[in-house]
Amino acid sequence: MSRTPWILLLLLCSLGLASALKVPLRIKDVLPVLPRQISWPVLNNFHSAVDLLPSFIGSVTPNNDSIQWEGACFSGNEARLEFVEGDRGLGGGVLYLKTSEAHSWACMDLYVFATPYRITWDYYFSAREHTLKFDSWEEPAELEYVKQHGVSVFLMPSGMLGTMLSLIDVLPLFSNTVWGQNANLAFLEKHMGATFEKRSQPWRATINPDDVHTGDFLALSKIRGRWGGFETLEKWVTGAFAGHTAVCLKDEMGKLWVGESGHENEKGEEVIAVIPWEEWWELQLKDGSNPQIALLPLHPGLREKFNSTAAWEYARSMSGKPYGYHNMIFSWIDTMAENYPPPLDTHLVVSVMSMWTRVQPTYAANMWNEALNKRLSTEGLDLYEILAEVENRGISVDHLLTIPEQDEWVYSDGKSTTCVAFILAMYKEAGIFGPISNSIQVTEFTIRDAYMLKIFENNQTRLPSWCNLGDEKLPFCQILGEYRMELPEYNTIEPYTNMNEHCPSLPPTYIRPSQC
User: Fold this and answer.
1) Any idea what the Cα angle at residue 323 is, between residues 490 and 343, rounded to 5°?
2) pLDDT tens figures, 451-467
3) What is the pTM of this model?
């Protein structure tokens, strides 16, 4: 369809002629059919950041009658939820949403439906009863959550339809099936240029712990299920070809351990832990997310200088503390616009923040509220108060998100380190960064930033004999996985002051200026 009639209509509306011509239309009614490049600027022109946030309608549970509300397009709306038989033994559900009394023949309402385990969406042009089917709950915990709290309903600005449509290939990524794994591989091939070359057997290395040393880095790439889907999106936005990390430690008796931020404890909490190698390795072999794992040995020259005592002291001081959710997204966002692969942008990120604040307020506080307060030098503001404070100060949300994280910041549950920040903070303590340690904020590093550091073994002949059997000639040791791991620009960048505080990360090339 030609864009010209819609642009002309938009101009007519903006000039106030729509009323004179009695066009039953408002300017925002045409936004869904406009290209995203047009609809977003119009949205931004007519609304503040707060206006563009999703509106929380309510939660639909199978035990209440129904909820009613007035939408942007349809004045009369009603929703109810019923449990039905599912295809995985957990049952599923059907959400019935009835729309009526549209204010215009061309308008629509766009909704997001969320639980802590999924986010889906739909849009409605016609006045009738619509159905949204949940074929199966993801796991027993989601079923229990829906029984108690229901499915949360959010009304979105309709101009976001183009953005939502362009994210359609994200939906299968979280499926714990062969289809889901194939979706992850296809997504990374399409958006990042990954190759996923099949390896020859054996896919599992026979590791001699004597050849593994304190400080050696473990890079993991999960490609299936909930964690596989999450890591795929993390890789896409950061440019990393791995989604999780851990570090090797040897005690004074020569026993090998693994330090990890993001270890799941017996309560199901993601924490920092130091566990025996054998236990950690067994967990990886049983992991349904099909992890591909590489061992990145430190350079021998740095290994000689590595202060193992300081490394162990740091690891023990952090053991049991929560995973670094506080600063997870801030290692990714360094610039005003050059860290958001299309169709992502600041508005969509803040929209997700807003929805998650309603669905999981405790997690929302962990994920961004405290960190944003740190950047504003305020305390205790929730997301909506933070956005109001930003407007009062005359700064932008875009700018707020780019303020660098500081390693010395202490959150309500202590210092906050992601999987990679935990390792790099240990490296700081052990002397890896030498005299520039105090001018490096490791909480600003992504996994890609870490494996690009020029601190690893650069001589393949010094790699262990069990490393890269067969025809593989990788510069590191792949120890598990059916696909050959890629780590572009591995071991290439010397550490420098204020490293990785202002770096872009746009796919598919993820070009970064020197010294950014």
Assistant:
1) 60
2) 999 999 999 999 998 98
3) 0.75
